């Protein structure tokens, strides 16, 4: 790293927290708001889809999606997300963060709208169309993970970097909350406008034809927040770290940074010796990367993989768990819209009192406690509460103990968010070199989505085959493994990105070789 680059980056590291930092949190965070809304709102409408498209005449219970269709509808977006994380993560390092950032958002807008317009003559045609658009929706969402994390980490100062990246991720909580609230409002409005009897009184009449609009409106609303932030996302300049370290243009980095942050930089001259060798420019598939960062990548990828098995299993199937313990009334005692309303209300309460607070506890404490301690603590309590739910499972199903079950279940959510769900997102954006940062974050995030797919597909069958109790025991064991793999992840609290990635080591070597001579004056307003 050359002297002028180092000074530009030092200016970023010690810059005071400014209004633009918060603007960047909102711009990047709205992507995550949309991500969470789109990924989780599907779990609110799957039972409604079953009633509308898979009703069996004469059946004593409402129609439900066949297991393979339910797994596809719930899991196909994760397949797209995994692919998007790898592709856009790589592209973000090749073309720059800014150039790729708008594409992901446009994909989200188009595919959210298209999901709600799914069509077909037969039920399976509608589901196939829905799955197609949700795959590409996931592809756009996947791109947002590495790009948002990398952009926020590269804009932030080192004192509050963890809180800023965690705040971007915490917008997920509001997305989950919004999904529940939109479903409550839409289903409540239709329920009032089109009253219908419960299923056991009139199986055909319990699902009004207008119910088909409900799930479409809920899915399409995901396009609104993404569309609102597109203009601002396009106005963001390229991050100074990418321009200085990857594009090797410190002058442009200084100019870009001065536009948005109150940092005054004057470049006098900048020259690069012909044929200068950059000893730190090793690639991803090299022995040098493996020796310096191999274990770190294994740590970030494995912990995210294990976390997401537990986290997405809980999120996607909480409606089944609530039904099993009787917190949501039996399906046949409700009409179609009442069922959507009940599931959305339960999910919104969990989000409001455990999911959202958990995220913001992380934001408040991550730069005080450190990433490692929060992640270890989160996995420990997830393990504890999973076993506390699973071992005396029969006790929790008794009517008098249901509130206790919901509280314990909420605590597993709280400690996943005040724990590994946030830290697994933050750390990969901090510990890898700038030219590989987006790629490595994409690999770690894709590993997480592979875990989410295991959770979405396997838990669906496991809950049917072995029951909720044994499924919870398995999730407890998975959380314990996450705790063990956390020891592979380094602590990045209070260190600059260049210290963590080892790029700062090059600075002395380059200066002694006379690499690039410049005179840079930096004043921080």
UniProtKB/TrEMBL annotation:
MF GO annotations? phosphate transmembrane transporter activity; symporter activity
**Where along the chain is composition biased (Polar residues)?**
507-525
Instruction: Write out the ranges of the annotated region (Disordered).
Output: 498-525
GO biological process per UniProt: phosphate ion transport
Which superkingdom heads the taxonomic lineage of this protein's source? Eukaryota
Start and end residues of each Major facilitator superfamily (MFS) profile domain = 24-494
Would the keyword Transport be found if you checked this record's keyword annotation? Answer: yes
Cellular component (GO) terms are:
membrane
Keywords, A to Z, come to: Membrane, Phosphate transport, Symport, Transmembrane, Transmembrane helix, Transport
- What Pfam families does this protein map onto? Sugar_tr
Presence of the UniProt keyword Membrane in the record: yes
Location in the cell: Membrane
Segments spanning the bilayer are: 20-45, 65-88, 100-120, 126-143, 164-190, 213-232, 343-362, 374-394, 406-427, 439-460, 472-490
How does the UniProt record describe the way this protein sits in the membrane? Multi-pass membrane protein
User: By its UniProt entry, which InterPro entries does this protein fall under?
Assistant: MFS_dom (IPR020846), MFS_sugar_transport-like (IPR005828), MFS_trans_sf (IPR036259), Phos_permease (IPR004738)
PANTHER family listed in its UniProt record: SOLUTE CARRIER FAMILY 22 MEMBER
| Family to which the UniProt record says this protein belongs | Belongs to the major facilitator superfamily. Phosphate:H(+) symporter (TC 2.A.1.9) family.
Would you tell me the protein name for this molecule? Major facilitator superfamily (MFS) profile domain-containing protein
Species source reads Gossypium stocksii
């Amino acid at each position: 790293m050359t002297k002028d680059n180092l000074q530009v980056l030092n200016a970023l590291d010690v810059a005071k927290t400014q209004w633009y930092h918060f603007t960047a949190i909102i711009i990047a965070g709205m992507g995550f708001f949309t991500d969470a809304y789109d990924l989780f709102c599907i779990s609110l409408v799957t039972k409604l889809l079953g009633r509308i498209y898979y009703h069996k005449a004469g059946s004593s219970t409402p129609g439900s999606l066949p297991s393979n269709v339910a797994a596809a509808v719930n899991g196909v977006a994760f397949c797209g997300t995994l692919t998007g994380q790898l592709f856009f993560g790589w592209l973000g390092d090749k073309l720059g963060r800014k150039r790729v950032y708008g594409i992901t958002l446009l994909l989200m807008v188009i595919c959210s709208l298209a999901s709600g317009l799914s069509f077909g003559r037969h039920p399976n045609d509608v589901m196939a169309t829905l799955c197609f658009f949700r795959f590409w929706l996931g592809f756009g969402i996947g791109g947002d993970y590495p790009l948002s994390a990398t952009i926020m980490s590269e804009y932030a100062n080192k004192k509050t970097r963890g809180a800023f990246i965690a705040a971007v991720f915490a917008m997920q909580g509001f997305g989950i909350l919004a999904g529940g609230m939109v479903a409550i409002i839409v289903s409540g409005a239709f329920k009032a406008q089109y009253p219908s009897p419960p299923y056991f009184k009139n199986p055909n009449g319990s699902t009004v034809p207008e119910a088909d609009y409900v799930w479409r409106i809920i899915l399409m609303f995901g396009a609104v927040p993404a569309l609102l932030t597109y203009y601002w996302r396009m106005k963001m300049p390229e991050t100074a770290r990418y321009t200085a370290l990857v594009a090797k243009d410190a002058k442009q980095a200084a100019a870009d940074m001065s536009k948005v942050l109150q940092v005054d930089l004057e470049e006098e001259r900048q020259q690069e010796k012909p044929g200068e060798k950059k000893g730190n420019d090793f690639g991803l598939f090299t022995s040098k990367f493996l020796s310096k960062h191999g274990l770190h990548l294994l740590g970030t990828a494995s912990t995210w993989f294990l976390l997401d098995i537990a986290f997405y299993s809980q999120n996607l199937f909480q409606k089944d768990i609530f039904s099993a313990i009787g917190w949501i009334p039996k399906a046949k005692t409700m009409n179609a819209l009442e069922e959507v309303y009940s599931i959305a209300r339960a999910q919104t309460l969990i989000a409001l009192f455990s999911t959202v607070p958990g995220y913001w506890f992380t934001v408040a404490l991550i730069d005080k406690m450190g990433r490692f301690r929060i992640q270890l603590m989160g996995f420990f309590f997830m393990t504890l509460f999973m076993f506390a739910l699973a071992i005396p499972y029969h006790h929790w199903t008794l009517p008098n103990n249901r509130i206790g079950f919901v509280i314990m279940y909420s605590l597993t959510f709280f400690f996943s968010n005040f724990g590994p769900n946030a830290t697994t997102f933050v750390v990969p954006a901090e510990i890898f070199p700038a030219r590989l940062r987006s790629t490595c974050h994409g690999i770690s995030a894709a590993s997480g989505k592979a875990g989410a797919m295991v959770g979405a597909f396997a838990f669906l069958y496991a809950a049917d085959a072995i029951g909720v109790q044994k499924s919870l025991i398995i999730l407890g064991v998975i959380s314990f493994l996450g705790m063990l793999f956390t020891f592979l992840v380094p602590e990045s609290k209070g260190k600059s990105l260049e210290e963590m990635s080892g790029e700062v080591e090059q600075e002395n070597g380059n200066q002694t070789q006379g690499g690039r001579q410049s005179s840079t004056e930096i004043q921080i307003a």
